[in-house]
Design a protein that fits this description.
The chain has 230 residues and is of the alpha+beta class. The protein has helices at 28-46, 95-102, 152-159, 180-186, 197-201, 208-214; strands at 53-57, 70-77, 80-85, 114-117, 121-131, 140-141, 146-149, 167-176, 190-194. Strands 1, 2, 3, 4, 5, 6, 7, 8 and 9 form a nine-stranded mixed β-sheet that branches. It starts with 27 loop residues before the first helix and ends in a 16-residue tail after the last helix.
């Protein structure tokens, strides 16, 4: 918990030394962090869905599956939540290898998309997170910008040179049971923020966590490694 610095008492120094006004006020970083947490708490308390936003792991989150992770939240209801980690690139298999394994033509494909480790759950399954300029009957439309498709239709379209404008292929996903994500948000394990498509789909994976925090105007250097309410 961040503590306000109390003004110097007369016993600790000269009586005519005025207190530093800035010392008694929380920093701008603390204010922004507190505001972000307040928004998350308000959303969970009111039962609002955070689907279509990103979750940003706080430094104190100890689970190595999610250390400094950024997760696009595809579903968030009273029954649980599901999302895709967007900053864990996979060196193998390649998109080319995956198409061969799934017997999807043409190989080599006319275009490719990046492969990511989408989370620790069911990592033998593939999920394509993509823009809604292309969808199929099996697509889950998260919002007006993005959809999630787990069928071969989208891979066939991409391999043929068509498909959505932007997309990524995730193996596995992150999942939460009923109320679990809400409790983790209240425990300050995560911050939530609007999804920035340039962060979602670009290849600069090492900086996605820092840039996602920057959308909230939070400097990661000011974040504590210890969980707690600011």
């Amino acid at each position: 918990m961040a503590r306000k610095t109390l003004p110097t008492s007369p016993a600790d120094g000269p009586a005519d030394t005025p207190p530093d006004p800035a010392a008694a006020k929380p920093s701008a970083g603390v204010k922004r962090r507190s505001a972000a947490r307040a928004r998350a708490a308000e959303a969970t308390a009111s039962g609002l869905s955070l689907a279509g936003q990103v979750l940003i792991a706080m430094p104190a989150l100890a689970d190595q599956n999610f250390h400094r992770s950024v997760i696009y939240l595809c579903a968030h209801t009273g029954e649980g939540a599901m999302g895709i980690v967007i900053n864990r690139p996979l060196a193998s298999p390649t998109f080319h290898d995956l198409l061969k394994q799934l017997k999807v033509d043409p190989v080599p494909p006319a275009r490719t998309i990046r492969l990511l480790s989408g989370g620790p759950v069911d990592n033998a399954r593939g999920f394509v997170l993509h823009t809604t300029d292309w969808t199929s009957d099996s697509s889950l439309q998260v919002d007006d910008r993005l959809a999630l498709t787990a069928s071969l239709d989208v891979l066939k379209a991409i391999a043929s040179g068509g498909g959505p404008r932007d997309g990524l292929l995730a193996l596995g996903y992150a999942g939460w049971g009923p109320g679990q994500l809400d409790r983790e948000l209240q425990a300050n394990s995560w911050l939530n923020a609007p999804a920035d498509l340039s962060i979602l789909f670009d290849a600069e994976h090492e900086t996605k966590w820092r840039r996602a925090l920057a959308t909230l105007r939070i400097d990661p250097l000011l974040l504590s490694d210890t969980a707690g309410h600011a």
